[in-house]
Amino acid sequence: MPDSPEQIVRVVGERLAQPRLGKDALVKLLKQAEGALSEFSQSLSLQDALHSLSKSLVETNLLNHRDKDVKLLVAVCFIEVMRVLAPDPPFSNEILKEIFRLFISIFADLAETSSPYISRRMKILENVAALRCSMLMLNIGCEDLILDMVKVFFSSVRQGLQPSVCQAMLSIVVQILNEKVTRPLVDVILRNLVKDDKGPSHKLAVDIIEKCARILEPIICSFLSSCILNKDLPVNDLKKLHHKVIVEIFQCAPKILFAVIPNLTHELLSDQVDIRLEAVHLIGRLLALSNLHFGRENKSVFREFLRRFSDKSAEVRIAAIDAAKACYMDKSSGDEARNILTSLQGRFLDFEEKVRMRAVNTVCDLAKSNPSSFPHGVVLLAAERLRDKKASVRKNVMHKLLELYRDYCEKCSKGTATVNTHYEQIPAKLIVLCFDNNIESFRPQSMELIFAEELFPSSLSPKERATHWIQFFSYFKPEHIKALKVIFSQKRRLQSEMQAYLSLRAKKEEPSDEIQKKICTSFRKMATSFPDASKAEVCFQNLHQMKDNNIFKDLGELISDTTTFATGRLTRDSFLKRIGHKHPMHSFFKILSVKCMYSIFNWEMICAIFETLLSSGNELTNYVESACYLLLVVAMVFPSLFRGSEEYLLKLFSEESVLINEKTLQMLAQLAKSTHHLSINLRNAVYPLLEQKCVEGTRAESKYAIAAITSLRPLDDQKFVKLCKKVVTGLNDKRNVPTVLQSLGSILEQSPSVYELYGKQIINSIQDILLSTEFISTSGQSSLDDNSTCCFSCKLKVYCLKALVKGFLPRITSHARINNMLEKLLDYEKGLFPDIALCENDSPHLQLAAAKSVLQLATRWDSQISPQLFRNTILMARDPSYIVRKSFICKLYGLLKKRAIPMRYACAFALTSTDCFGDVRAESASYLSEVLKEQRRVFLQQIKTSKDSVVDSPAYAVVFLIHTLAHGEELPSNYYEDETSFPEFCSPLYVMLRELVEIDSFNGTEHGPAASSVSVLSGIFRAIQKAEDPSDSEITQKLHILAKIGLLIVKELDKNCNMSSPRHILLPSSYYKLSGSEIKADEGCQENFISDKLVKRILKAHEPCKRQENVKCSVVSERVSNEPVPERENASDCCNGKGNKRSASGKALPKKKDQNTNNSLGKENVSSCGSAGTKLSSPGSLGLAKEADSRECVSLLDKQNHPMSRCSTGETRASKADHNLCRQTVDISNFHLRECSFKKDCGKVSSESQKNSAFLPGSSIVCSELEDVGDCDDNFVKLPLSNNKRAGLKKKGKRALELVNSQNSSDVTGADTIDNVRCTRARKARV
Question: What is the rounded distance in angstroms from the CA atom of residue 1275 to the CA atom of residue 1020?
Fold first, then answer.
């Protein structure tokens, strides 16, 4: 074999020319040629040496050989020849095309990285790149081959290829693009750019664009612009992906898109939803990729993008929200981020529920991803959607907030987050869902599970749970605490019933019918703790049938108050394992186990809270106050959890502690009620401190200190004697007088024997205060309500009155003493204060205090309260002062709610039906409805037990309402013609009857006629028609008129009413007496005619009316107070114009007209009906003193300085001239009444005071159900003529009788006028 490469090449070239060479021979020769050619360097002088080889490679058809090995070696030889003879290869254009086609086929195998021939293929590729063969291909017109080659590059590039291979491919493509850019070639590059698989082919496309950005910019911009602007052009697969192209190019060569980006506004403004949707997705990606720099650089596009948050399409708005989430997660600072967040907040109020949900979800996810930097106030705005009108939105928001709060607690536990005041408000937002009883997921039965299982991570320790409880409890308002108490009480009720059931089951004797009945009762009570009570009761029955006693042992362990969280979880798991996961009622038993165990609060958390308090360093911060209040709330429901906490309590109530405040004292009083929970040592240790608080603390503190002393030492009167001595000494020394008076009243209430020892001394000291007009300054006394116009001296007089009244509450008080006190209170209510020195504005405060004192005494001494005192007390609901009326009805509602006073006092709520302020009317109506419904419930229970009495019917309150109205203002002489005053006069009666009839119709007649208020009312009205007033014969006529009108009103309200009545209707003898004869009763009212049109006019006056312009207001509307709403400092008259003061008998006394009042109304040009816009306020939200008992003293204007027109039965009506002051009416029919509910467990037995009314056998009025209804029919009711009168008419003839009858049946007004007595405050009848 020759040695020189030239000779080798020649010899190989000659042998290759021989025909019919086999594969092996070809391979051998080609390898020899490869080796020789590799030794040549580039030189045109070798052209002769390579001629034979070149000729043989071309002419022997080796270019089209089918064997892959031969083809690869031939390609190697060709590329080597081209390398050596570059730049002028010895081949024609056609041969070159075939050679390049061969090369491309070789490049397709580059993907076989494990092939032994990979090095030869790489060599060919690298030489093609180095020799710039692509230029040669372009010169000879091989554009199609170039396109194929580029496609092969993208398809063959793989992971694992050497970088030199990828670099060679990149170099070749760049060479081509630098020489010539074609659309098909760009399309190939872009298709690989937008591949979902971000592999080597994508990387190659990115590298190509980065290298050739300037060259590719025109054609890419043209393509993208046509995609954006020319939507009507034919669509191909690449055009559909133009947004993806923009995103990819934006990441690698954003300058290419400089001319394209502004065109995106065209898509954002497109009429087609799908185009806007894709545009929003695109811009969201661009914003996120650029960390919002895109928005800063393209402001017009960014502004239009922000407008898509309010797009008319919900899908587009949702897309904008999703884009905002991606953007904000990448960058949360800068103007662009704030603008995006602002737009996102706007979607909280979107009209599409799915958009609102997506907005809330986005905010919660953003807050969870970065709790430290995310604006926390936005989270609270999102939480407001818990009040969304859609239940699905509320549920979604609840779960997202729970997820966020759990994540926050977990980060706090790990130390990656600190306590955040905004996040700690989330539980307060969640718990108000308890009031949404229409949705099963929000009822207290379900919310208990949420607070037990979903609020905190399961891994959170009791100490950490207690810390968070204290934090978020500080944001609880009264409504939140009320909801929490409902949840706690419900849980406690189930635990108690479960304990009772387990005790019954544990009895070894055979189960009797009585035991089985008790078990069923327990099941029924426990079932109320579940959303579906009937289904739960069945599950309890199935539980009772189970034979495994270990199941019931586990239940007993769960309800034990000594069980820890960890033990409770283990016991619960054991219980559920015994039940079995495949049990059909497994989910019920899972919920039952949560409800049985102390999963919300347990004794470990109580100890943790005590430790927090004791480690606070005696600093009374908000956190400490929240902890004290939380302990109080828990102690009210779960006092057993405090068992064993005596050491903490001793430290808490140590002498140097500043934590002894109203809440901790109230907590101690609550715990002291359950004597087995506290040891004797604690009682002895804290008693001196309690005594100190009785003298040196605040009024509220002294109140609870006395309560604690009473509970800790219930039988030790000597302690009260010693304490009373200290208190009386402090009273004589004028030290902390308000607190001393509070303590004194509580002591007198708890220990009546003290009065026998110190009564005279107490009376003398109190008289000194009542007769004093000086301001009594006391050292160390905290200031009272600075906003109140009531002076300190007046406050002390009120406190004195309260202390005296409490001394009369014990039942051993003599009747002489109580009667003397009641007489004084009557004088005070009349405004007569012979034994009290009055300051300028004392009178209204003392009158209010006297009325409240009467209510308090009625809890024990209602039988001693005279009719006159009763009337004057409930007429306080028509006092000229707004604050007096408001405070009185709230106090009254509280007592009626507890069933502490008789039902008859509810008449006061009906008297406010003509009140000037809408919130007073609305709240009174709500209170009246509540107490009537509760009284009906009690009445029905008595019917079931056969202990019913008509006196206990809610309808019986009408007896006292008619009495009060009859003794009130004078009945108009022409009442049957009066279109305004008389309907107003009857308004309280109508309101009361309407509520009673509606309650009847709502509850049906399943309890029979005995339970029907309508039948009771008919009997009451007929009994009153046969009765007289015992004190004033002139009142009798009014009684009969009101009774007949009431009877007709009932018939109008209930068309299907049954007028049969109970057999016996007893009227109280102190309010009514039996008429001497029927003739006498008829003679008293024979000149009055009551037509059906008169009654219909009364009903018409109270119908709801729409808002109208220029409608004349009625007299009721005109009685509008100039007194400001409660937030203002002073309260003025209830009515403008002339006003009257009540006399002792309830009649009106004339008063001078206050010109200033009327002028001020005229100057302000404000309709007197403007009070309809007053915001409803809660019963306890009057602007009064902060201390518990100082709310008796309210801000009032002196009646003498500011004449008032009383909104009561004793007032005179406004003059005709004053009517011009009230012309515009305001519709307040949309007012929402306060929702108040009775506690189901309170007052199971009626107060004894409800049974103290005197019914004397000889004077009680009895009406038989067999008696004729009399003159009642569907057309009219008239008072019967006397026999003498009718006889006289008969003598005159038939014509005279017909004339009388025609006058009776005609409309006395002569025209069908429209009465608008209630147009400004009309409300639809509640169903």
Answer: 21
Backbone angles phi, psi at 1146, to 5 degrees: 90, 0
* Tens of pLDDT, residues 361-397: 999 999 988 877 888 889 999 999 999 999 999 999 9
Residue 1325 has pLDDT above 70, yes or no: no
Residues with Cβ within 8 Å of residue 20, at least 6 apart in sequence: none
H helices present in 290-352, as ranges? 293-297, 299-307, 314-330, 335-346
Range with lowest mean pLDDT among 443-452, 492-501, 1049-1058 = 1049-1058
SS3 string, 783-810, reads CCCCCCCCCHHHHHHHHHHHHHHHCCCC
pLDDT recorded at residue 998: 87
Is it true that the peptide bond before 87 is cis, omega within 30 degrees of 0?
yes
Closest-CA residue to 1032 (of 1065, 1071, 1069): 1071
Q: Which amino acid is at 1222?
A: C
Q: HSE, CB side, 13 Å, CA atoms: give it for residue 1281.
A: 12
Q: Are the C-beta atoms of 750 and 706 separated by less than 8 Å?
A: yes
Closest residue by Cα to residue 1122 from 1148, 1151, 1159: 1159
Average pLDDT over residues 1205-1222: 35
| pLDDT at residue 1147 greater than cutoff 50 | no
In 3-state terms the chain splits into helix, strand, coil percentages (rounded to 5) of 65, 0, 35
Judge contact between 388 and 396, C-beta under 8 A. no
Q: Which of 1028, 1031, 1059, 1041 is nearest to 986 (CA)?
A: 1041
pLDDT at residue 1176, rounded to an integer = 31
Cα–Cα distance for residue pair 1169/1287, rounded to 1 Å: 52
Query: In angstroms, rounded to a whole number, what is the distance separating the alpha carbons of residues 490 and 649?
Result: 27
pLDDT digits (tens, 9 = 90+) for 410-420: 999 998 888 88
Closest CA to 199 of 157, 247, 153: 157
Neighbours of 429 (CB within 10 A): 23
C-beta separation of 799 from 845 below 8 A: no
* Angstrom distance (rounded) from CA 702 to CA 695: 7
Per residue, the 3-state secondary structure of 1035-1082, as one string, reads HHHHHHHHHHHHHHHHHHHCCCCCCCCCCCCCCCCCCCEECCCHHHHH
- Kindly report, residue by residue over 1220-1229, the tens digit of the pLDDT: 333 333 333 3
Strand extents, DSSP E, 1180-1250: none
pLDDT of residue 195: 87
What is the average per-residue pLDDT within 237-264? 89
> pLDDT class for 715, splitting at 50, 70, 90?
low
Look up residue 152 and give its amino acid.
V
Interatomic CA distance for residues 890 and 896, integer angstroms: 10
Angle between helices 353-369 and 335-346 in degrees, nearest 10: 140
Please give the residue that has the higher pLDDT: either 1234 or 821. 821
- On whether the CB atoms of residues 108 and 118 are closer than 8 A, the answer is no
Residues 6+ apart with CB under 8 A from 1086: 1279, 1280, 1281, 1282, 1285
Phi and psi (nearest 5°) for 836? -130, 130
Mean pLDDT to the nearest integer, 248-268: 90
> Which structure tokens are listed for 1203?
């004449």
> CA–CA separation, 818 vs 839, rounded Å?
27
Specify the DSSP element, H or E, that contains 1276.
strand 1276-1278
Q: Comparing 127-141, 216-230, 597-611, 1182-1196, which segment has the lowest mean pLDDT? A: 1182-1196
pLDDT band at 1257 (very low <50, low <70, confident <90, very high): very low
Buried b vs exposed e over 388-400: b needs ≥16 C-beta within 10 Å? beeeebbbbbbeb
Degrees, nearest 5: CA angle 399-402-404: 110
- DSSP alpha helices (H): ranges in 638-716? 646-652, 662-673, 680-696, 699-712
